[in-house]
Amino acid sequence: MMILKLLLALLMMLSINLRSSEATCYNVYSRSEVYALQSILAAWNESTPDMTTNLAGWSSSQIFPCYNNQSWRGVICSFYVDNITDPCNFTVNIVVIHLTAASIVGTLPSAIGHLTRLVELTLTDNPGLSGNIPKELGNLTNLVILNLSNNGLNGSIPAELFRSNRSSNRSVIRQSTLQQIDLSNNQLSGNLPNLGGASWLQSVKISNNKLTGPSPPFYDPGTDYGFMNMTELNTIDLSENELVGSPPNLTAIWRLQSVNLSSNYFNGSIIPTSIFNTSANLTVLDLSHNNFTGLLPDLSTFSNSLTQLNLSFNSFNPEPYPAWVKGFNQLSMLSLKRNGLSGSFPYDLASLPNLEIL
Ligand SMILES: *[C@@H]1O[C@H](CO)[C@@H](O)[C@H](O)[C@H]1NC(C)=O
Ligand SMILES: *[C@@H]1O[C@H](CO)[C@@H](O)[C@H](O)[C@H]1NC(C)=O
Ligand SMILES: *[C@@H]1O[C@H](CO)[C@@H](O)[C@H](O)[C@H]1NC(C)=O
Ligand SMILES: *[C@@H]1O[C@H](CO)[C@@H](O)[C@H](O)[C@H]1NC(C)=O
Ligand SMILES: *[C@@H]1O[C@H](CO)[C@@H](O)[C@H](O)[C@H]1NC(C)=O
Ligand SMILES: *[C@@H]1O[C@H](CO)[C@@H](O)[C@H](O)[C@H]1NC(C)=O
Ligand SMILES: *[C@@H]1O[C@H](CO)[C@@H](O)[C@H](O)[C@H]1NC(C)=O
Ligand SMILES: *[C@@H]1O[C@H](CO)[C@@H](O)[C@H](O)[C@H]1NC(C)=O
Ligand SMILES: *[C@@H]1O[C@H](CO)[C@@H](O)[C@H](O)[C@H]1NC(C)=O
Ligand SMILES: *[C@@H]1O[C@H](CO)[C@@H](O)[C@H](O)[C@H]1NC(C)=O
Ligand SMILES: *[C@@H]1O[C@H](CO)[C@@H](O)[C@H](O)[C@H]1NC(C)=O
Ligand SMILES: *[C@@H]1O[C@H](CO)[C@@H](O)[C@H](O)[C@H]1NC(C)=O
């Protein structure tokens, strides 16, 4: 490791590329980004894959990832001309790493936090990719898409990923740029961090992990890190974890469309107005396989938008089939199974245009 660092420090991060048939151009790489990529490669050195396919091009001898036709698979660079009078001198930054089913075996090293120009990090379908998600990913101040689904990652979800920052006079000095985070199908444990710092977040999917404890509210103006208004969030999937207590407070999220909290240990009675923003146009709601009690929640505020509603496998009070369901004119899927509903099935339900009742 020391030798690698030394070598890299000695090297000028300059590669010479033939970008056109006439001129010889210079690509000036960031030393820390090249170091970060080499650290990642070193952390994946147990990978069985054929380096000519899955990790084609990844090499400690060709350290420049976007070198003509020998570029590293899944790595995309940006090329900037700094000086317009010197149009053949490019500043090169690594902006995308996208490797799906690349048979990666190894971990994510903390040096990944040096890829500060990274916009997308997608490493999916690599069951041999294990260990923790490094908190240094929170240093990637340009990251928009983080997709680490279908791997073998464990440990807790670093709160740093979602942090915006405000100064002592409480004005915002840095906003998290993250828009999509998908950590589904890993072995992540611990609590769900407060996501309220990520004001640009559109979609959060953390299904099928081992998260425990209560869910924090998604917006918490009183705290240092949960204070950003979540004006963009439309999709939340926390299904198949071990979360307990009340469902998360989503009342501040007016753009919300799809919520999946199924297969957890959420409990208590559901008062829709204390969970949801009633002006949201909720289309998908899955609260199945929890331990909700009390009355079946009256969700008629969403009757014009809900297309899928699943409240099955909870412990709601036995009661007659709820009449309010009749107003759901968009509904294509409804499941209220195993909730001890009594009385007759309301006849008019059958007249809903697209409805499939499970
Ligand atoms: C991978 O790297 C580690 C630490 O640098 C080293 O101990 C190990 O021998 C390497 N494995 C292979 C297959 O190169
Ligand atoms: C890269 O391009 C050069 C010149 O165009 C060619 O000679 C060489 O075979 C190519 N290498 C690979 C790995 O395709
Ligand atoms: C831009 O490049 C020209 C030609 O190489 C050089 O003379 C000039 O000093 C450069 N300007 C800056 C701001 O680096
Ligand atoms: C390219 O531009 C950078 C920054 O403007 C400068 O430091 C470097 O010397 C230039 N390289 C060449 C080969 O002109
Ligand atoms: C996470 O995975 C690594 C590598 O497989 C293992 O050594 C470690 O014990 C695991 N940690 C936890 C908390 O499960
Ligand atoms: C990167 O993140 C770590 C942990 O979150 C932090 O301690 C460190 O100062 C950060 N580095 C930079 C260069 O911002
Ligand atoms: C993440 O990657 C998986 C597998 O490639 C894909 O199915 C999923 O849609 C992606 N998630 C997002 C939010 O794009
Ligand atoms: C937040 O700001 C403080 C000081 O203002 C700084 O030390 C810290 O590294 C910043 N954190 C992030 C995640 O930018
Ligand atoms: C959040 O929204 C409220 C109401 O629109 C506004 O007063 C407040 O300043 C916003 N907070 C931030 C951190 O943008
Ligand atoms: C939910 O969060 C909002 C802030 O967005 C707060 O005003 C409200 O009291 C919270 N509701 C509950 C039931 O905690
Ligand atoms: C919800 O739908 C109504 C009617 O289509 C529309 O007027 C309203 O702006 C929508 N609300 C949101 C938050 O998108
Ligand atoms: C569900 O809640 C009831 C009442 O609070 C409790 O008795 C029961 O043990 C809970 N079941 C599960 C599986 O948590």
TrEMBL record:
<feature type="domain" description="Leucine-rich repeat-containing N-terminal plant-type">
    <location>
        <begin position="32"/>
        <end position="78"/>
    </location>
</feature>
<dbReference type="InterPro" id="IPR003591">
    <property type="entry name" value="Leu-rich_rpt_typical-subtyp"/>
</dbReference>
<feature type="signal peptide">
    <location>
        <begin position="1"/>
        <end position="23"/>
    </location>
</feature>
<keyword id="KW-0433">Leucine-rich repeat</keyword>
<dbReference type="Pfam" id="PF08263">
    <property type="entry name" value="LRRNT_2"/>
</dbReference>
<keyword id="KW-0677">Repeat</keyword>
<dbReference type="InterPro" id="IPR032675">
    <property type="entry name" value="LRR_dom_sf"/>
</dbReference>
<dbReference type="Pfam" id="PF13855">
    <property type="entry name" value="LRR_8"/>
</dbReference>
<dbReference type="Pfam" id="PF00560">
    <property type="entry name" value="LRR_1"/>
</dbReference>
<protein>
    <recommendedName>
        <fullName>Leucine-rich repeat-containing N-terminal plant-type domain-containing protein</fullName>
    </recommendedName>
</protein>
<dbReference type="InterPro" id="IPR001611">
    <property type="entry name" value="Leu-rich_rpt"/>
</dbReference>
<dbReference type="InterPro" id="IPR052941">
    <property type="entry name" value="StomDev_PlantInt_Reg"/>
</dbReference>
<keyword id="KW-0732">Signal</keyword>
<dbReference type="InterPro" id="IPR013210">
    <property type="entry name" value="LRR_N_plant-typ"/>
</dbReference>
